[in-house]
Amino acid sequence: MKIMDKLSRKSHRKQKRAYHRLLRDMNIKCCDNPTKCMMICNAGLVTGLQRETLQNVIDPLVSKYDLVMLPNKSYCFIKFYSINDAEYVYNKIHGHIKLEGQNTPLYASFTEADPKLDYYQLSSDLPPGLRIIENFITKNEEKDLLNTLNWNNEVSKSSDLKHRKVKHFGYKFEYDSNKVDSDNPIAPIPEIYQFLQIRFRKYDIPHEYDQLTINHYLPGQGIPPHIDTHSVFEDTILSLSLGSACIMDFKQKDKRISIFLPPLSLLIMSGEARYAWSHGICPRHNDVIDSVNGITTQPRNTRVSFTFRKVKTGSCCCTFPEYCDTKENTTFIDDKTATGIENSYVHEVYENISSHFDETRHNQWPNVSKFLQSLNPGDILLDIGCGNGKYLYEHKHIFKIGCDRSQNLMKICRNKNFEVFLSDCLYLPYKNNSLDAVISIAVIHHLSTHERRKQAISELARVLRPNGKCLIYVWAKEQEIDSTQTAYLKYNTTKKKNKSLYKQKLTEYGVTLPIHENRTKFTSTDMLVPWKRKGGGDFLRYYHVFQENELAQLCSEIVDFITKDIYYDQGNWCAILQKKCEIN
């Protein structure tokens, strides 16, 4: 009688499904007559089958065979050295043997061939920049570390954690943004963990770490693939594994490398592995590993990881812009495009909002007024980008002139009897060394390339007399300094957020710019900022918001200027400059 005739209906269905999978996966056919190769249809690495478990079933029956277990498959193969051995084992186990934890017995089938060994061979290569230090700590140290943790009262408040428990020290990791709030530190890393920081130095790890996340994983829990945010954390990130081993998957485009992390080991991610490869842990109860005897599964137990990060100050300098949030938020605009963007999203906008602008701009900023008051009697001041002329009144001890690119704003100033003229800040119609002082308040941030911003400041230096003084204000990307929240952000605590209809806009010049949500922190250096008028008629203005030290660096590139002061004033970076006496 043929083997298929002996099968129960249930085993027949399982075999049939296995036949289809096998034919689809490896083009191997099952057959009715005995062969040297047998497939276990309903047990494999995916089902959690361990090599040793199946060996314990087969070893009492035959002395010589090869067991082939395939990653990501729910079936496996036994290759015998004779057909008699194969038929004997088949008759003993098919439909008769139940493995521990299984509700149904093993179902087997003969196949025409066995899979090639190179089909399931795992790579031992590591992503560039990845290191694993095994036995970084001792078993006793592991026990001491685990004893410092009490998880009984820990409850996940984030759906992103999938019920995983977590503790933070130094700074709280915000899972909705994958960042930390560097202005809001929490309890520092406990002193009891300091011995780890000391041990890190033996492996040329460069940082004294200030942020620690401790994760508690039960079997079946994992963490989604991710790249730790470039702009928030420094290069080298560490992860210490305690309790249980696991497989961590590293991915970069079509590349995938699975790394076995044993307990007591330290994972070091730097360079390309840190910046350009995602890493994650698949939520499952068993991991496929390479054992001495071959590929098998290993059940997970409770695992605890200590992840150490160093919070970054300043911008990211990595060489992986494709994966960098800093590079993604930096818009590259060439000189040809810059003129079009500024015409459409700066000059035309101010022509349209001039009346509303005049209604809302009255009071002089105190530090600007203080600068004007410091000028000598009779000094000639030029206010570049004077707008509605709010700095052209008062301070009668100096002679004040204003210029602006907007014709409508110039009309408003003339109606107030101010001395003004129409001019582009990049090309001032004044002779060299002809003015005593200049101010540029909230103007240069409307220029869309570094070279154009530099040219504007160079013009300020050109028209100033030796020892002449200059004051520059530009919007700051940082709207909170020294834990002081600007009025720009405070306003949002009492007003309901008006979310923009657009997250970003593809301009008619082929450049995509994010649209800022008013009264929130800036997420990018180059943005379109809404101007909202009562009764409708909203407009988008282009801004380049300056990061800390950016204005100072830009001013240092102007050789004729000496930087007297750089300061922060209510959401603005400010510079006081003085022209050198000796002109190069």
Summarize the structure in words.
By secondary structure, the protein is of the alpha+beta class. About 25% of the residues lie in helices and about 30% in strands. The protein has 14 helices and 32 strands. The strands form nine sheets. It has a seven-stranded mixed sheet, sandwiched between helices. Strand 25 and strand 26 form a beta hairpin. Helix 9 (about 335-360) packs parallel to helix 11 (about 405-415). It starts with a helix and ends in a 5-residue tail after the last strand. About 35% of the residues are buried.
Describe the sheet with the most strands: 7 strands, mixed
Q: Report the total helices.
A: 14
* Unreliable residue stretches: 1-7, 117-121, 156-160, 493-502
Q: What is the residue-mean pLDDT, rounded to a whole number? A: 84
Rg (CA only):
34 Å
Give the CA-CA distance, first to last residue: 105 Å
> Structural class of the secondary elements?
alpha+beta
Spatial arrangement of strands, main beta sheet:
22-21-20-23-24-32-31
Multimeric status of the protein? single chain
Number of strand segments? 32
Helix content: 10-25%
Global geometry: elongated
Strand content: 25-35%
Question: Outline of this structure?
Answer:
This protein has 584 residues and is α+β, with helices and mostly antiparallel strands. Helices cover 24% and strands 28% of the residues.
